[in-house]
Specification:
Bound molecules: adenosine-5'-triphosphate, magnesium ion
Strand order of the largest sheet: 7-8-9-3-10-11
CATH architecture of the largest domain: 3-Layer(aba) Sandwich
Structural class: alpha+beta
Shape: globular
Helix content: 10-25%
CATH superfamily of the largest domain: P-loop containing nucleotide triphosphate hydrolases
Number of domains: 2
């Protein structure tokens, strides 16, 4: 279990100013879980990771692994990075070009404080090479590996010391799209098989959703929402999170009335009255933003009504883009354009009428006083 409590890390900015790059960051990661810090460039992900690693000295807070405190501002504890027993892979991972695969992985064992016998060393190296599926390439020069293989080699090197914690900072960012997607599966498999507690940093929401047990979305140095991938995607608590995780439509509205169903509200919007979901209490007339994912707008040429409790709207096809597996429609309702993702079998031409059905559960109301986007 990793515990990070009220962590703050500052840098000296320009002209004597102070940049608080990690601001009161708190989270726990249970043993064996995969935890991701996700957010836009400059939000403080790397700073938080480097603080956990001991490569930055935080100005406040506490970091514990199990019952071992590696940093505490209050108690004046700072354990040096090489004594924390954490494995790390950074964005610009470096393999040693003058060594073969085996030697690359064996190197940390040779420079570490603990001495290993030749047999012990060979056993450990071959075990991690097997885990990352490189054992058959042990003798190959490290430079004669593909990008994905080099990536796995960097991972093997981080794993060979059997770290208590694995810290990964955008480790897949140097790879092309196809390889990145394949490495995602590999990484997930390796992490699951070894059961190693992992902190992963990325600005790629797809990667975060695919890999994580839990995600913390960061903005301007702070964690703005934490939860499972589905939770974060389906129940964003702010406009910032809804916008950052996937694409979405925002519709401004005002509360009309509470519905009989729990957490359901009737809202007036420029596209008509909508039934929406909100788990907080709302006041009559209160302004809010409704977030609706493109895949949750169900398009049909057949007539729609609200008899089944779903929202029923009518518009026209303004634009459409064929993307193979699906078609993106821009549907114009009044003066509002909504993005809808539809099956390619829907062939309604541009300019024709189109009807829309939306499940109220997929209309997420975000109260106005939630934190708005701050980062540039
Ligand atoms: N060594 C430094 N000195 C001063 N400011 C820094 C330093 N490193 C980072 N910062 C600032 O701290 C903030 C957080 O940076 P950080 O590298 O943690 O962001 P990040 O979320 O990892 O971004 P990216 O996705 O671009 O890697 C930014 O405003 C950055 O400019
Ligand atoms: Mg970074």
């Amino acid at each position: 279990m990793l515990t990070v409590r009220s962590l703050s890390t500052e840098y000296a900015g320009q002209k004597g100013t102070v940049v608080r790059a990690a601001d009161d960051v708190s989270f726990e990661v249970p043993q064996g879980k995969f935890f991701t810090l996700l957010g836009p460039s400059g939000c403080g992900k790397t700073t938080t990771l480097r603080s956990i690693a001991g490569l930055e000295k935080p100005t406040g807070g506490e970091i514990r692994v199990g019952d071992r405190t590696v940093f505490s501002a209050a108690q004046g504890i700072f354990v040096a990075p090489n004594r924390r027993n954490f494995g790390m892979v950074f964005q610009s991972y470096a393999i040693w070009p003058h060594m073969n695969v085996f030697q690359n992985v064996a190197f940390p064992l040779e420079v570490g404080r603990r001495r290993f016998s030749q047999a012990e060393k060979a056993d450990r190296v071959m075990r991690v090479l097997h885990a990352v599926a490189l054992d058959h390439l042990a003798e190959r020069d490290a430079t004669r590996l593909s990008g994905g293989q080099q990536q796995r080699l960097a991972l093997a090197r981080a794993l060979v010391m059997e770290p208590d914690l694995l810290l990964l900072d955008e480790p897949l960012s140097n790879l092309d799209l196809k390889l990145r997607e394949r490495m995602r599966f590999e990484l997930k498999r390796i992490q699951r098989e070894l059961g190693i507690t992992t902190i992963y940093v990325t600005h790629d929401q797809g990667e975060a959703l695919a890999l994580s047990h839990e995600i913390a979305v960061m903005n301007a140095g702070r964690i703005v929402q934490r939860g499972g991938p589905r939770d974060i995607y389906e129940r964003p608590k702010s406009r910032f999170v809804a916008d950052f995780i996937g694409s979405t439509n925002f519709v401004e509205g005002a509360v009309l009335a509470r519905e009989a169903d729990p957490h359901h509200w009737r809202v007036s919007t420029p596209i008509g009255e909508l039934r929406v979901v909100c788990h907080e209490d709302l006041g009559r007339g209160e302004a809010l933003t409704v977030s609706i994912r493109p895949e949750d707008l169900e398009l049909t040429e057949a007539p729609v009504d609200g008899a089944d409790g779903r929202n029923a709207l009518s518009g026209t096809v303004d634009q459409k883009v064929f993307l193979g597996e699906y078609v993106d429609f821009q549907v114009k309702i009044g003066e509002t354009i909504l993005l809808a993702r539809a099956h390619p079998s829907l062939r309604t031409p541009i300019g024709n009428p189109i009807n829309v059905r939306i499940d109220p559960e997929k209309c997420i109301a975000l109260p106005e006083d939630e934190p708005r986007r701050q980062a540039a």
